[in-house]
């Protein structure tokens, strides 16, 4: 058995994104104990930085020791008990996953279906909430499977109006577009580190408000997930009256998250949001000049996750294989009913730069031309450059 040497890749799929050298260096720092006073100081800095990033001054903010899906499971398993009603908006793969998890918690699930590629329709959600006696309204803010962005503020307001707790999936949105927990009035929000934060996968930033914490404390039975039981996790992360051992924290992964948050604060969160928007506009201009179209309409389109429709007659898997083999560039395929219909191109965190835009357009137009698609590389790059210079 030999040491593993991974190939050098350029990550422009739906996640993970490229990890900066600063974050990689932080991961290699000496491991210390999870109850070491120095590490406890790091924990407090991470909590405060997450609260600032998500505008969540009154929420309990912490990173869960598992990927973004663990945040989804923690939110739904902590809030829902058998017989509770949950209204769940579905407009892509990750809304479907919410339905599955809520069902496993024993909840009565009321689905609100929306077309994949469209934002969640608040009017449909309001109809479902009326008279439902729902405990939870759950939805995906930035649907990674389709590139669609929904109106979190409007949906959270509906949840409060109808007495429900709001659960918001911000796995792909955090760091790329505004996540405003206080402004939205959201009860529970979770995310992941491997998207716009550009840290390795394996942690889930998580925020839980007072109403949600009170609901967890008032449960009739124990949470059906020991590791993600927020009553137990908070006893370790809160630090009030000393930390109660719960699990051995992923220490070096938390070094990486901390450094990613430092990098983001140095850039400025609003500046980072503007950078993601500008790179998206340049990529979109280039793709459209190459005759390609998007799944989501412009008003609901995510800047950091671009779902691009595959032209007729193109072998989409062969295109991705050529990008990986000739350019070491990874883009993503479609999921569920969109398999074979779209590519998912990420412009996330460290992967949202002019260099990435130019490389993607060069590689993609080359791979398309190899299948007798018109060679529009020059037009695509010229359109992107014009937008970058505006």
What does this structure look like?
This protein is 42% helix and 14% strand. The longest helix has 21 residues, at 269-289. By secondary structure, it is of the alpha/beta class. The model has no long low-confidence stretch (mean pLDDT 97). Helix 2 crosses helix 10 (251-267), helix 3 (68-79) packs across helix 4 (93-104) and helix 11 runs parallel beside helix 13. It folds into two domains: 21-265, 3-Layer(aba) Sandwich (Aspartate Aminotransferase, domain 2), CATH 3.40.640; 269-389, Alpha-Beta Complex (Aspartate Aminotransferase, domain 1), CATH 3.90.1150. It has helices spanning 21-27, 37-53, 68-79, 93-104, 122-129, 152-161, 181-184, 210-217, 230-237, 251-267, 269-289, 316-327, 354-369, 377-389, and strands at 10-11, 60-64, 85-90, 108-113, 136-140, 142-143, 148-149, 165-169, 188-190, 204-208, 305-309, 329-330, 332-333, 342-346.
How would you summarize what this structure contains?
The chain has 390 residues and is of the alpha/beta class.
Instruction: Summarize the amount of helix as a percent range.
Output: 40-55%
Low-confidence parts, pLDDT < 50 over ≥5 residues? none
> Looking at CATH, which topology of the largest domain would you report?
Aspartate Aminotransferase, domain 2
Strand segment tally: 14
Structural domains: how many: 2
Structural class: alpha/beta
CATH class of the largest domain reads Alpha Beta
* Main β-sheet, spatial strand arrangement: 2-10-9-8-5-3-4
């Amino acid at each position: 058995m030999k040491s593993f040497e991974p190939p050098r890749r350029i990550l422009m799929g739906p996640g993970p994104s490229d990890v900066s050298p600063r974050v990689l260096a932080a991961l290699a720092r000496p491991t210390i104990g999870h109850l070491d006073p120095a590490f406890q100081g790091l924990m407090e800095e991470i909590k405060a930085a997450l609260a600032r990033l998500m505008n969540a001054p009154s929420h309990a903010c912490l990173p869960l020791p598992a990927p973004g899906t663990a945040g989804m499971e923690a939110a739904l398993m902590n809030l829902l008990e058998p017989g509770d009603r949950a209204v769940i908006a579905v407009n892509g793969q990750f809304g479907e996953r919410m339905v599955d998890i809520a069902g496993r918690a024993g909840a009565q699930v009321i689905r609100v279906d929306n077309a994949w590629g469209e934002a969640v329709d608040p009017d449909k959600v309001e109809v479902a909430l009326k008279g439902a006696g729902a405990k939870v309204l759950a939805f995906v803010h930035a649907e990674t499977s389709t590139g669609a962005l929904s109106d979190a503020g409007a949906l959270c307001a509906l949840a409060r109006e109808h007495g429900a707790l709001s659960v918001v999936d911000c796995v792909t949105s955090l760091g790329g577009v505004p996540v405003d927990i206080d402004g939205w009035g959201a009860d529970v929000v979770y995310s992941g580190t491997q998207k716009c934060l550009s840290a390795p996968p394996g942690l889930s930033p998580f925020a839980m408000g007072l109403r949600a914490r009170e609901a967890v404390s008032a449960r009739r039975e124990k949470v059906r997930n020991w590791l993600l039981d927020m009553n137990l996790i908070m006893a370790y992360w809160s630090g009030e009256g000393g930390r109660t051992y719960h699990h051995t924290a992923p220490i070096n992964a938390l070094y990486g998250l901390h450094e990613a948050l430092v990098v983001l604060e140095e850039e400025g969160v609003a500046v980072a949001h503007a950078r993601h928007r500008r790179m998206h506009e340049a990529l979109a201009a280039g793709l459209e000049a190459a005759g390609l179209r998007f799944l989501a309409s412009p008003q609901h389109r995510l800047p950091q996750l671009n779902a691009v429709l595959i032209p007729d007659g193109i072998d989409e898997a062969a295109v991705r294989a050529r990008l990986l083999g000739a350019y070491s560039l990874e883009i993503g395929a479609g999921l569920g009913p969109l398999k074979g219909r779209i590519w998912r191109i990420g412009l996330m965190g460290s992967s949202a730069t002019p260099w990435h835009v130019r490389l993607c357009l060069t590689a993609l137009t080359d791979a398309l031309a190899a299948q007798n698609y018109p060679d529009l590389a020059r037009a695509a790059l010229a359109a992107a450059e014009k937008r970058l210079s505006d």
